[in-house]
Amino acid sequence: MALTAKFVKTQELLFELRVADVMRRDVITVRPDQTMTELRRILRDHRISGTPVAAGDELVGMITIADLIAFLNSDEEEALIGDKMTANPDSLFSDQLLVHAIQQFDATRFGRFPVLDPRSRKLVGILTKGLIIEGMLRAMEQAFQEEEIRQYRASHIFEDMVAEYKEIYLTYELVGRDFDRAGKASTQMKRNLKRLGIRPDIIHRLAVASYEAEMNTVLYAESGVMEFRIAPEEIVMRLRDRGPGIADVEKAKQPGYSGAPEWVREMGFGAGMGIPNIIKCADRIDLQSTVGVGTTLSVRIFTGAGANRAGDEGGGT
Amino acid sequence: MTLREVVEELSAEVLHGAEEELNGTVATVAAGDLMSDVLTRATIADLLVTGLSNMQTIRTATVAGIKSIVIVRGKPVSPQMIDLAREEDLVLMVTGMKLFEAAGRLWARGLRTGETRA
Question: Which of A165, A194, A253, B13 has the fewest CB atoms within 10 Å around its CB?
Fold first, then answer.
């Protein structure tokens, strides 16, 4: 799946790029009052196979090597570019998405398009298939480097910082009953841990524990603060919420114990598996709750060399 | 089995997923409406088959490391779910079949849970 994932990234890039990002700005142009003989010299000198015809910075036509060949095969001794060009040529606007430009290349089979400024309608560049490929490669290279740099920076942060104790805190605010955002904190945290270079099986355990805990807060509490303390040997998640609290903490740790109303079950939760799941993922948990005030849950996962592998029975409380 | 074959087997409609992504193969499946059950798996499944169609379906797959989702019973899928699937690089499809039939057909094509029975 790694390769296909890259393809998707390429498509996304395609939707971010605009014609102006990849077009050539220093366009070679000819005037309609120049001769075809002059055109022949210009195409040869610049090694191009076509060029816009402009009067001032006003686009008036396109002329290509095909037009030149047709002229050379005719009986005419000389002709003006203005008489042989394609007048009112198809053009692109500089603010158009590159994907749309590519569709236009496909639909017309033209090798090049003049690019106009969308407001002034003046000629500001030219776009060829070659320039599209070049621009795409440049953008991909840049995106790739940016992510590499981010990963490198993050994964070396503990080595690069010199201190007696080194810890990173990530804090997320949770809002009760906000189901569109529920789980966002846990997925963001998961992405951050990947960048930090944490072992994937540890990330998985932490992400599951954190997501179950986050859902509990969103489902039952008014609000909460979820904090991750990332140290070289362990990661500790602490979630404090303001809400109804849990009446019987020991019972809540038992699989299948749930006081969830029907609508929670309709959300795909509420079967009394949340806290047992968290216990399963954690090396240590601490659950404190006061009815009518709120709940504080701490989950500790060891990350050092001897840390549990996924599937090992973690689970002390 | 490729995702494209899953689409055909289940007569599913792909809501998000590029052509190249549908060439990806799947071997293991998590099926169920209870997200906690999906999260508690010991191994990471390739595909989630579920009757739950809300934002938590996508979030659960992301957290559990599952890269593709089939929503069953033709449940409506919100535009926000499709946006989130795009953001998280997940393949998302919907079929009119019930969970039992969808799971049965995939089993018959050789897909398994990927977990040893306790």
Answer: A165
